[in-house]
Structure formats: structure tokens, C-alpha cells
Specification:
Length: about 650
């Protein structure tokens, strides 16, 4: 279970978090804003407990940013490093992982310079925890080393936090019994210290493992005790994570109603915070749960929120920074290698001089040996410093690379889940074949999922077929398509609306109400086909896209309404169109993706007229061959260019 998120498990200056500090964030903020910065303000800021930081991220960010750039701490590397660690915590909680890592590296160098082994061990433990998705085995080894140092130094508050983190790493590894052992050791230390801030985190961790083992009642005892303490402390973010933990527990037990209730409570606690990680996770679960209930309007809204936060955390800028850091790493690595090589050459030269001098001046051997020893020592130290810098930057680059790869995998998993939902709701081939024996569907999503969709149903001896283009493409377009499919089904099968134009009117009304004034909706062609023994009759309504009828090798013009199904400039009713078709007629429905594709020798759009000409040219061929020729023509035109939109084209022969 991923309940820990970005919480207490950073091992950042735990002693300060443990202090029973009476200073409020607001009082410190006021003094910093009034430029009353002195040693007392620095110490009071460092003593702000974790639960106060996490519930006031923006104010704390301002305070620590100002203290990080002040000249007051230039001659105090330990205090400056502590401020950087506090700011790193805030950046991590706000989802700025690149800045958090940068501050960690800076603080570790300062602690090393000051000879502060305890705080350096804490900072290294924090980096080990943050690197758990990059290399779990390495993180466990590094955390173990930090714990060994903290045991020797006998620092119980720091040790308790590091041991808690150690349990998290073993839980990620799947070793639940080992994780529980460390969680309980951490809890024992915190209870001995009467650490009311830290105790709930250990309780929450133990509860999570018990839930995974299906020990629900025992797990609830721990989570309830954690909630009681956090409620007394006013730790709303902590309570939000407790609710999130309960939500995950109910998901594991397939109790979606209770899961949704607790995820909603988690969001209610966290909605006023600048804490994107918790909001991102909650929105994702809410979207999945609403989709399972087939409430696609709510699923779309929550997925849009999830997607907005996810993109803000893991956008292309992060990837650009990785490239820049990798370049910097390689450049400095080469520079340090050259420096190290020069040192080696100097050593060899001195050794030769020493041998020549030894033959002439026996007594100078001792002096030269001392000089050589100094040079060797300096060269060794230079190599060590070079290796440290190279190692730190390599960790930084690998951390960022693996962080984005992990998030990209999560994104792809989410998109594949959306694809499974979408494809189960598209018109299935058996339904189409039973009602349209001669047909083909050319469907080419731009991404894994599509904003374009085709949908069908049979109601009261009428067959309905829709070819639609939802707002957007990719994941947002796909969730919009689920919403549109839901309204189509609702209008025809639940509200018993039969006329195509009235169906589109109903969907437009629902979209405007449910999308809170947003311009989201769809372009659509909706057919209503009546197939009797004597003739086939087709009624349709068309929003922005019109169908194409080919008869006797000619295109028969058909009408459309130049307005979308959704919020637009026009509000009048859609028009009902009637067609009397005859045997041999070809009927085509399509969205704009085919005609709008760039390609050809000049990189221009394919356009509608050439598409109609292509349909006429091939109309006497078997339908399957027509589909193959259309797909080949599209791919030949596109060439090496990117597909610009989803493509949907349906052919029906009467």
C-alpha cells in the first residue's frame, strides 16, 4: 500500500520536529516579513514541528526560502544546512522533487564540511528513502548504514524516524514481517520519548500492513488510535492520510462505496493545502471508482483533476532537467578525471626527481619523501573529492531518471486502464454484424485511448449507430467519450428518446449542466435505421460532421447542423434528417481525423474533397478491400509525420 506518500518518512532533522515548540508559523512569518531576521528567528524556524510544516506549506516555504538566502548563516554551515533540509522537506511535500534533491546534496556537503556526522546521517537517510523507487536494494543498504551510525551516536528521535523508514523500504520489498518488526521498534522508541507527533505515523504504518494481511479489526485499532492523536494535534494532513489508508483498505476488500467515502474525506481534509501528492492519489482512485459505477461524468471530472496535477509534477521540464544534469555530470566527471590524471603525472615526475637526487644527496631523501607524501596525500584527497562529486551527481541523475520513468509507467498504466474501460463500451462487432451485415470500421486512435468513438444499440426494432468526436484526444478525450457514451445510452435506453435530433438535444443539455459551463462536448453523427421487409429507412442528426452517401458512383450531398453537441454559440434544436436509401447505396460516417492529417509531398492536410473522391473511386470494391485501401492511403499520405488526431471512418453498404 502506498499510504506513506511524502509524509514523515524523510528523516529530516527529527530532533527539531520532536521539540515541543510553542512558536506559531504565523508569528515567525510576521517577523521574517518585517526583516527581523536574527539567530533567534533562525532557531525558532528550525524548531517548527513537522505537523505544523505539513499543514502550512506555503508559509513555511516563504520562511525557509528567505533564511536560505540570508547572509546571516554564511559562517555557520550547520545552521545553513539545517535550513536547506527544512526547505528540501517543503519542496518534496509540494512535489518539486528536483529542487528537493538539489537542496539535499547542498546540505550534505555543508554537514560534511562542519563535521556533523549526526545530521549528515539524517540527510543521507532522507536521500535513501527518496531513492526507493530508483534502487530499492541500494536504499535499504544506505538506510541500514545510517541507522548503524545513529545507534552508535545514541540519538533516539532520529533513530526512531530512520527505523520507521527502514520498515517502509522492507514493506515495498514485500517483506511484511520484517517491516512490522521495524515499525514496532520505532513505535516503542517514540512512545518512550512521548513523541506525540511521530507516534501516529508508526501506528498508521502498522495498520497498513495489517490491512494487507487482511487483519481488518486489528488494523482498525491502530488507525483509530492514530486518528485520535492527530485530531488532538490538529494535524489535518495526517488525518487525510489516515482516511486515504482506510480508502485503500476498502479497495483491497472490494468495498467501493466505503472506499469512496474515505477518499472523499481525505480530499476534504487536504483540499485547502498545497499538497499535490495526496490530491493526485485521491483523484486517481475516485476516478477509477466512479468509472466502475459507470458514472463517467464524475469519473471524467476526477481524472481531469488527477491528470492536471500529474502533468504539473512530471512534465517535460523535468525531463529537460535530467538531460541538463546528465550533461553537467559528464562534463564535471571529465574535468575531474583530467585533474586527477595531472596529479598522477606530477607524482611520477617527483618520484623520478627523487631517484636522481638520491644518488647525489643522500640526506635529502627524507625531505623529498615528506614532499612526496604531501603530494600523494593531496592527490589522494583530490581523487576522493572527485569521486564524491561524481557519485553525488550520478545519484542525482539516476534518481531523476528513475523517478520520471516510474511516473511515466504509472501514467501508462492509468491510460491502459482507461483503454480497457473505453473498448468495452464501443460497439462490439457481433452487434454490428447482426444489424449491418455489410460494413467496416477503420479506427486509429492517435494515442493509446481515443476521443473518437463509435457506439451502437438496438431499441424497439430500431438500430442506432453513432460516430462521434469528443473534445480532445488521448486520456482527456477518452474520458470525455465515456461521458458521451453514458449520455447516449441514457437518452435511448433509459429515457426512451427515439428521434436522433432529440437525443442530441438531450445530450447537449446534460453536458452543459454537468460540465459546469465548460466547452467540452462532441461532434456527432447519429443514425436511426429501420430495416423492414420492404425497404430500409434511415433518419439521422448531424452535429458539425455530415455523413456521405454514394449512389451510382456519385456523392449525394447530405445536410448537417453547424454546431457541436455541447456549449456553443447556437442553442436551437438539432435537425432531423430523413433518407430513403436503395439497395447498393454506400453510406460513410467519419470524424475529422482522416481529412485533417498532414502529409504528402508538401506536408499539407489531406482534406475532405480528396477523401470523398477516394471513397467514390473505390466504392465498387468489396468493403474489406475498401477499408484496406483507405488505411494504406492514410499511412502513405502521413509518411513519417506524426498522426495529428484520432481517425474514425465507418462504411455501410445497403
Amino acid at each position: 500500500m502506498s499510504r506513506w506518500g511524502n509524509l514523515y518518512f524523510l528523516c529530516l532533522l527529527t530532533a527539531c520536529c520532536f521539540c515541543q515548540n510553542k512558536n506559531t508559523v504565523d508569528s515567525i512569518l510576521t517577523e521574517v516579513q518585517n526583516h527581523k531576521i536574527n539567530g533567534s528567528i533562525v532557531q525558532r524556524s528550525l524548531d517548527i514541528p513537522y505537523d505544523k510544516i505539513v499543514n502550512d506549506l506555503n508559509k513555511c516555504q516563504f520562511i525557509f526560502n528567505i533564511l536560505n538566502i540570508t547572509n546571516l548563516l554564511e559562517n555557520n554551515p550547520t545552521k545553513k544546512a539545517e535550513i536547506k533540509e527544512k526547505l528540501s522537506l517543503v519542496m518534496y511535500l509540494k512535489g518539486n522533487y528536483t529542487k528537493s534533491l538539489e537542496l539535499h546534496l547542498q546540505s550534505i556537503k555543508l554537514f560534511d564540511k562542519a563535521g556533523d556526522l549526526r545530521r549528515k546521517a539524517n540527510a543521507m537517510a532522507a536521500m535513501a528513502y527518496e531513492g526507493k523507487k530508483r534502487n530499492l536494494t541500494s536504499s535499504i543498504e544506505q538506510m541500514g548504514e545510517s541507522i548503524e551510525i545513529l545507534r552508535k551516536l545514541n540519538v533516539p528521535p532520529d533513530l526512531a524516524t530512520a527505523i520507521d523508514n527502514y520498515g517502509v523500504l522492507f514493506e515495498l520489498k514485500g517483506e511484511l514481517d520484517t517491516a512490522t518488526k521495524y515499525y514496532k521498534e520505532a513505535l516503542y522508541i517514540k512512545e518512550t520519548l512521548q513523541d506525540s507527533i511521530g507516534i501516529p505515523y508508526s501506528l498508521n504504518n502498522i495498520a497498513g500492513v495489517l490491512f494487507m494481511k487482511n487483519y481488518l479489526n486489528e488494523g482498525l485499532k491502530y488507525i483509530n488510535r492514530s486518528t485520535e492523536i492527530r485530531n488532538k494535534l490538529g494535524d489535518y494532513i495526517g488525518m487525510a492520510w489516515n482516511e486515504y489508508t482506510l480508502g485503500e483498505m476498502f479497495v483491497l476488500n472490494k468495498n467501493n462505496i466505503s472506499a469512496k467515502y474515505h477518499f472523499q474525506k481525505a480530499y476534504d481534509f487536504a483540499k485547502n493545502s498545497e499538497y499535490p501528492d495526496l490530491q493526485e492519489r485521491t483523484f486517481k482512485y475516485m476516478s477509477i471508482l466512479f468509472a466502475k459505477e459507470k458514472r463517467y461524468d464524475s469519473a471524467y471530472i476526477y481524472f481531469s483533476r488527477f491528470f492536471d496535477i500529474h502533468n504539473s509534477l512530471y512534465n517535460q521540464q523535468n525531463q529537460k532537467q535530467i538531460v541538463e544534469m546528465a550533461t553537467l555530470y559528464e562534463t564535471e566527471k571529465k574535468s575531474l578525471e583530467i585533474k586527477s590524471l595531472n596529479s598522477d603525472n606530477k607524482l611520477k615526475q617527483k618520484e623520478l626527481e627523487e631517484k636522481r637526487t638520491m644518488q647525489l644527496f643522500l640526506f635529502a631523501i627524507i625531505g623529498l619523501a615528506l614532499i612526496a607524501g604531501i603530494i600523494i596525500f593531496k592527490a589522494y584527497r583530490q581523487k576522493n573529492e572527485a569521486n564524491k562529486i561524481i557519485s553525488s551527481q550520478k545519484i542525482e541523475v539516476e534518481y531523476q531518471k528513475n523517478l520520471i520513468e516510474e511516473k511515466q509507467k504509472e501514467t501508462v498504466d492509468s491510460i491502459n486502464y482507461a483503454k480497457r474501460i473505453q473498448y468495452t463500451l464501443l460497439a462490439n462487432e457481433k452487434l454490428l454484424q447482426n444489424n449491418l451485415p455489410n460494413h467496416f470500421v477503420l479506427f486509429k486512435p492517435k494515442d493509446i485511448v481515443s476521443g473518437d468513438f463509435y457506439w451502437a444499440t438496438r431499441k424497439n426494432n430500431f438500430f442506432y449507430l453513432a460516430a462521434c468526436d469528443s473534445t480532445g484526444h488521448g486520456v482527456p478525450g477518452a474520458f470525455m467519450s465515456l461521458l458521451n457514451i453514458n449520455f447516449l445510452n441514457e437518452a435511448i435506453n433509459e429515457k426512451n428518446i427515439s428521434a436522433p435530433h432529440e437525443i442530441l438535444n438531450y445530450i447537449r443539455k446534460q453536458l452543459i449542466e454537468k460540465m459546469y459551463g465548460r466547452n467540452d462536448g462532441m461532434d456527432a453523427i447519429l443514425l436511426k435505421i429501420e430495416n423492414t421487409t420492404s425497404k430500409i429507412k434511415i433518419q439521422y442528426a448531424a452535429a458539425n460532421n455530415e455523413p456521405v452517401l454514394i449512389r451510382n458512383n456519385k456523392v449525394i450531398p447530405l445536410l448537417k447542423d453547424k454546431m457541436p453537441v455541447g456549449k456553443g454559440e447556437k442553442t436551437e434544436s438539432f435537425t432531423l434528417q430523413n433518407i430513403d436509401v436503395i439497395k447498393g447505396d454506400l453510406f460513410f460516417l467519419f470524424t475529422d481525423g482522416y481529412a485533417d492529417q498532414f502529409g504528402g509531398p508538401k506536408g499539407k492536410k489531406f482534406k475532405y474533397k480528396p477523401l470523398e473522391d477516394l471513397l467514390v473511386a473505390n466504392n465498387e470494391k468489396p468493403l474489406l478491400e475498401q477499408k484496406e485501401l483507405l488505411e494504406k492511403s492514410f499511412n502513405d499520405w502521413k509518411g513519417n509525420l506524426e498522426q495529428v488526431d484520432d481517425v474514425l471512418l465507418i462504411g455501410i453498404k445497403i
